[in-house]
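Let's sit down with a protein and look at its sequence and fold side by side. We need material for that, and I hope you will provide a protein of your own picking. Once you have written the record down, we can walk along the chain together.

***
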Amino acid sequence: MAGMGLLSIPAFATAAGNRNKKIKRPPYLQPGNTIGITCPAGFSLLETIQPSIDLIQSWGYKVQLGTTIGKMDHTFGGTDAERAADFQQMMDDPNINAILCATGGYGAVRMVDLLNFQSFKQNPKWVIGFSDITVLHSHLHQVVHVASLHSKMCGSFPKEWANADEVQQASILSIKDALEGKKISYPSMPVEHNRIGSAKGLLVGGNLKILENLNGSASMINTDGKILFVEDVGEPLYNIDRMFCNLLRSGKLAKLSGLIVGGFSNIKVDNPAVPFGRDIYTIVKEKVAAFNYPVCFDFPVGHIKNNFALKCGLPHQLIVEKNQVQLTEI
């Protein structure tokens, strides 16, 4: 399999025909359970993820490292076939109770169609990560119909827990809480650009660039009646605008229950001499002007320190008021 390349993309009609399938929630974890760590995208070295291993074990869990930890195929954690085989083994191993992605980067889209989810559908487990792992969250939701956990990965764990600040500790502990079945309830600071209202629906989303790239594929999310959250990093404003235009023109914004705009960090300046002229708030408000669902900005999710764990595919309520914003699992 080492020389195996990308498989042909399956027809997205399959996903369209499965839009209303019930989402299955994986079992929550118990002390003594095992969390596997693998690299479905970029590479990660053992010394980089050691702090996360130590902390997870201190929580009472066992850790099983995948064969991709320490492997490198240029920027990838092994070849496409190697990364797929490692992820497949963790999905199929009955002794592994959750799968934590070591890092993001790029690469999940190159191996997702090499995976066989038949056994996983019957015995689902939590897949954990964000950024490029949005590929897997979207595919699990739309094609496999299994909930997953959007959260920080191994590289975001502090080297010294005692020296980590309160926000960093809280965001990491939110992973533990989510995996153990605690219902999430996150407040967010009110922003003057927010649009007031309340919404209920399945929570879906992730990295905006990935969501745009998945449009037209089997993994594209049907957003109708759902609460969509988006975030991104290192993009110029014109490209953020283009991505939101893609969501608008493809109908992904039309029938939302609510919209959560997370962190858009490290925005690049494309041309200082001729600024784009619209900030993230203006860009989003332009795209949702024709709709009347609640919208909140600056929510604590994304490539930011306060990146809290979110359970993708499960029912949530979003309440946006003038003086407070609250996202609660229901």
Confidence is low (pLDDT under 50) at residues 1-18. The chain has ten helices and 13 strands. The first strand starts at residue 34 and ends at 38. Residues 19-179 form a domain with the Rossmann fold fold (CATH 3.40.50.10740).
